[in-house]
Amino acid sequence: MAEFKGTAHNHAKLGDIAKTVLMPGDPLRAKFVAETFLEDAKCFNTVRGMLGFTGKYKGKEISIMAHGMGIPSIGIYSYELYKFYGVENIIRFGTAGSFKSEIDLFDIVLVEHAYSKSTYAREAFGFTEDVMDPSAELNEILAATAEKLGKKIWKGYVHSSDNFYSDFSIEREPAPYDLLCAEMESFGLFANARHLGKKAACILTISDSIVDHKETTPEQRQTGFTEMMEVALNAAIEM
Question: With a threshold of 0.85, does the pTM exceed it?
Answer without folding.
Answer: yes
